[in-house]
Predict the structure.
Amino acid sequence: MSLLDVQNLTLQFKTDEGLVTAVDDVSFTLEKGEVMGLVGESGSGKSVTAKSLMKLNANNAVYGSGSRIDLQLDMGNSVDVMTLNRPKDLQLVRGGAVSMIFQEPMASFAPAIPIGKQMVEQLLIHTDLSKAGAKALSIEMLDRVGISDAATRFNQYAFEMSGGMRQRAMIAMALSTKPQLLIADEPTTALDVTIQAQVIDLMKELVAEFDMGIIFITHDLGVVAQTADKVAVMYLGRMVEQGPVRDVIRNPQHPYTRGLIDALPKLDDLDAPLIPVPGDIPSPLERPSGCVFHTRCSQSLGHMCQTQIPQWSHRNLDHKCACHLVLEGAEK
Amino acid sequence: MTQKPLISARNLSVSFPVGGSVFKRQQLKAVDGVTLDIPKGSFFGVVGESGSGKTTLGRAFLNAVPIAGGQATFDDGSVQFALDNMSASDLKSYRRLAQLIFQDPYAALSPRMTVRDIIAEPLEVMGITKTRAETDTRVREIAAKCRLSLEHLRRFPHAFSGGQRQRISIARALACGPQFVVADESVAALDVSIQADILNLLKSLQQDLGLTFMFISHDLSVVAHTCDHVAVMYLGRIVESAPTRDLFRNPRHPYTQALFSAIPSLDPDDQGSAQKLQGEIPSPTNQPTGCKFHTRCPHADDLCKRQEPALEADGGGHQVMCHHWKSLMAVA
Ligand SMILES: Nc1ncnc2c1ncn2[C@@H]1O[C@H](COP(=O)(O)OP(=O)(O)OP(=O)(O)O)[C@@H](O)[C@H]1O
Ligand SMILES: Nc1ncnc2c1ncn2[C@@H]1O[C@H](COP(=O)(O)OP(=O)(O)OP(=O)(O)O)[C@@H](O)[C@H]1O
Ligand code: SF4
Ligand code: SF4
Ligand SMILES: [Mg+2]
Ligand SMILES: [Mg+2]
């Protein structure tokens, strides 16, 4: 069985203005040693989906009753994360079997405690290491993510570090517990590309060494191309395309995925204008009916797209897309 | 680029005290002898190693960190400021003219204020608008430019995703009508479509309002598409600086060359070209002698270890700080 099996994950937030749907019937699986890139519009629900895997969303979150998140633990038995409620049970996944590198590195370190101390505390909770052993491992991990003078940096506070160092310290902390599943939310956006290459190499090494599964959330399709085995594309809480990285990047099927690739600034043509996907993201309070992308899709088929949620159509065994146009094309 | 500089720096340095006890305190030179001119109306890019001092340099131009040595001036033709020697009343008028768009939209926005109040705050604090009605008009104008709806204005920032928050902080920074804007990793958190949109927006604001941007980014393809001129930083120094096309066509500094080669390719099968940097990343408190890049430079020799190269300029505005750039270019 898969390391991770997410079935029909649905998540709404209670807000003053009503229920906001952030994740809408999302399903995917991840194998051991596999890296999945998760891309999509800002606000499409990538971070919220990732946080659900540890049940880390804010208190106003309401999970759909049919949602299942089966996670395989190290002994071979598995657990449905959705059924965990007590803090003690949740510790099994939070920072234990699952580790997360947060999008907001400033928010993930307590400001008044040196970063090294926070790393050690986490290791003491989740491993059998002694204090000295935890310190040695923390310094080693800081060193491996390319932080010079790791022993000195160990005693520093988050505000004393540059954005990229904070990011790398966060990565070091998440990797130090050797989780089965690593969720990396925009882990390399604050890094220059030479360090990014080094961090990506480190992640690949760890995948191989510990058979870790990684969910890699990023806006950088180049990074996805270089790291991921497969890709999932989200738009307004729905997954609209999934498939092996080569298929999705070379043969994007969904109009939104194509829009994302067209919007990339290309280095070989500096005069080419940057073309955003036209139109505005609808408010999550006014989710479009039918295909959630229809308000911005230049290829919309009209009535059908406005009223019916498109089902998956398969381009091949692993590459699938939820779009009426693609489904029609396949049937013709 | 015959425009007069809006911002210029001569041998500018910024240091921070680091180290635990008062006795072991060292000075960390975050910006070390930088000389540079940012022409009025330009889109000036700054790239480089993480921790090389880009944010600190930007903050020095905003007068947000104490300047330890050298000079920096702001001169828009009608008002001048010596940034290394500002009175409290100078600082008050300068705040209106020079603004920052944050690197970390999470830390930047107060969770207890509505988006309307966040954008209105600088207008009220600086006394730019007199009545609530006037403030509201101004807020709506700038919000519309940053594509935030009226409904967004009533909400609190926690309910927004990273990309949406970044548009809020852009609106907030531009509300008071500044001339000089430091955009620090402002599009890093945005998906490529909104990124294209925001970059187009920033460019059109630059042209319409005659704004001058210092654009700090790790994304070299974004920089290539938006900036007129780019400076490359390494360990507190500017090691290369040139008009964008010139820099991307003919990078002269070995660090710049390594940086460009590490840009992740969109082709999953093209993994070979990154020139991996070996060697220790030096610590800013214990800097290498000679050329600061010599610990990682594939072309370093004895001269490089002994003597720091000077910043050499050619007639076309291309400057480089490397002993051997000419012979290296001849080989390539
Ligand atoms: N606590 C909350 N209360 C209400 N709405 C929320 C809350 N947290 C997130 N949301 C909403 O859920 C949606 C998905 O947000 P999420 O942060 O997952 O987006 P994302 O895909 O990670 O975007 P980005 O790329 O900008 O980080 C957004 O519309 C956001 O406004
Ligand atoms: N308040 C501070 N106290 C101590 N050291 C600091 C402080 N702010 C920055 N530094 C140090 O100054 C150096 C330059 O930091 P800066 O944030 O300017 O780098 P940067 O080029 O913006 O990096 P990044 O790309 O990672 O954001 C780093 O070594 C950093 O640790
Ligand atoms: S289902 Fe219709 S609206 Fe949606 S992406 Fe496909 S063509 Fe466009
Ligand atoms: S001066 Fe020497 S060490 Fe420095 S970049 Fe040039 S070749 Fe490399
Ligand atoms: Mg996110
Ligand atoms: Mg920075």
